[in-house]
Design a protein that fits this description.
The chain has no helices and 28 strands. The chain has 294 residues and is mainly β. The strands form seven sheets. It has a four-stranded antiparallel beta sheet, with no helix packed on it. The protein is globular. The mean pLDDT is 97.
Length: 294
């Protein structure tokens, strides 16, 4: 079972996104700051960046040498973490950037926004390769398969839209959730697991577009899904203030984590895997909590 082994507090508002470089946990908050926390010591690092707008999404790029930050305004900032300087600034998006994801296999990263737009960037020059209006409402999450050959978008119109990374054609459109798809993750055997505003978790064979299983998982929207591969566990985070851990094979419940288990007081917005047995969660309660499986 999972127990809490670290707690980080210091933000002045809800935390929306997390990243981890093996030593430091980065957190992006509505308080306009991106902060950094030392996992070993449990203390906040002196590194902090203040922005003009709430920070909605972050991602580490190029083996954690660079940090990309997406703001509620649509601004995209890229920082060189070694030299501690900003190297790029873009206003390609005009609405909030909800997710940034790196495709290491293709030397690319992707950004999505509240207007349903997708941008493809390269991670060598940090230049824009392609801009695609998807016309699907807000895009909340991006998932990339293990090969890097495909990625999927969680869309407000309830779909999962899957693209190939050679020419960026949309190759599958799966109607997944009433009210909107809000989270997703690729798993083996051509499968993808999604969470939605309908509070359901669904398992799909994405190549055949067949739903293999659908379960009522939470009371409100599911904001993030992550997999602990060696433990064969799926972790879900929800607006209902809970984290749930599921057996990946059959989606049976493994553990529920709420305030009684020293969990969060408000909506759980993001998850980040730390290693094969642990993860960190972030919430509107201004805290990041670290969990380890014993």
């Amino acid at each position: 079972m999972f127990h809490k082994f670290k707690e980080f507090s210091g933000h002045g508002a809800g935390i929306y996104s997390l990243a981890f470089d093996g030593q430091f946990i980065y957190s992006a908050s509505a308080d306009h700051y991106v902060a950094r926390w030392n996992l070993a010591s449990g203390e906040q690092d002196r590194f902090a960046i203040k922005f003009d707008f709430p920070a909605y999404s972050i991602a580490l790029l190029n083996n954690a040498e660079f940090l990309a930050v997406g703001l509620s305004s649509g601004d995209l900032h890229i920082f060189d973490l070694i030299n501690r300087v900003e190297v790029k600034f873009y206003k390609q998006h005009t609405k909030a950037i909800f997710c940034i994801a790196e495709n290491q296999a293709k030397k690319q990263f992707y950004t999505v926004d509240a207007d349903g737009n997708l941008s493809i960037w390269d991670t060598e020059k940090f230049s824009l390769l392609l801009y695609l209006p998807i016309d699907c409402g807000k895009v909340r999450r991006i998932a990339i398969d293990e090969s890097g050959e495909n990625f999927a978008l969680a869309c407000q119109d309830g779909t999962i839209r899957i693209f190939e990374t050679a020419y960026f054609n949309e190759i599958r459109t799966i109607k997944a959730h009433e009210g909107g798809t809000t989270s997703l993750v690729f798993v083996p055997n051509n499968e993808i697991i999604s969470g939605g505003k309908d509070a359901h978790i669904c398992r799909w064979n994405w190549k055949s577009e067949i739903c293999l299983k659908r379960i009522p998982a939470h009371n409100f929207s599911i904001y993030d899904l992550q997999v602990l591969k060696t433990k064969n566990l799926l972790v879900s985070a929800s607006r209902d203030k809970t984290i749930k851990v599921w057996n990946l094979q059959d989606l049976s419940i493994y553990q529920r984590i709420d305030l009684k288990q020293k969990g969060h007081r408000h909506s759980v917005n993001a998850l980040q895997i730390l290693d094969d047995t642990s993860f960190v969660s972030a919430s509107d309660d201004k805290r990041s909590l670290c969990w380890k499986c014993e």
